[in-house]
Amino acid sequence: VKVKIPFGNKYLDAIFSVPEKKSRYGVILTHGAGGDMNFPHLVCLAAYLASHGVLCLRFTCKGLNIAYRTKAFKSVVEYLKLSDDYKLSGVFLAGRSMGSRAAASVIRHLGQEDDDDFIQGLVCLSYPLHRPKLQCKLRDEDLLFIRCPVLFVSGSADEMCEKQLLEGVASKMKAPKKIHWIDKANHGMAVKGRTTDDVMEEINGQVFSWLREIIELEDK
């Protein structure tokens, strides 16, 4: 289902992947610095989640300014929260690369503003912890403030997220967290000798089983 989400005096293009049965939980998904919501990995994940009963809303927000991307993501969260078509108990914010930074930033800011439990967790696909070869400047400030559960799915050969550095940041985080390493994958999740479909199957399965764990804990 295609929708246009109000954002200031503009609109953001977005697409709902709707499960057959009414979903109580949703995932909001966005892309990295390049590309848009039709980036193949996102389309694949959204379809997988919807086929497993989780509503997925993916959106496009062009722009390389993290504050702008964060504002846009916030508008999408508000839109879904107030939606009459899909009355959800909670959402997970998810993004790829820069999109996951924007998602983390939204959760940090909303967490400081209100205490409702609408946001259930954060999924970071290829979180860009640092620029290539610039390991001295970590983009970890938002992660350290987050309290809700966080899942990282990263390639062990990601040039923007050195394994030891992410594990170090995770050990300082107050939130419940899990890291799933895709063996030998780079920032784009490409692995020599493995097909994209094969890698995506691993990623999709990890994301869904983690979501299910969190939702089941919430329901108890």
UniProtKB/TrEMBL annotation:
Residues 26-205 form the KANL3/Tex30 alpha/beta hydrolase-like domain. PANTHER family: TESTIS DEVELOPMENT PROTEIN PRTD, TESTIS-EXPRESSED PROTEIN 30. InterPro entries: AB_hydrolase_fold, KANL3/Tex30_Abhydrolase, NSL3/Tex30. It comes from the Eukaryota. It comes from Mesembrinibis cayennensis. This is TEX30 protein. Pfam families: Abhydrolase_11.
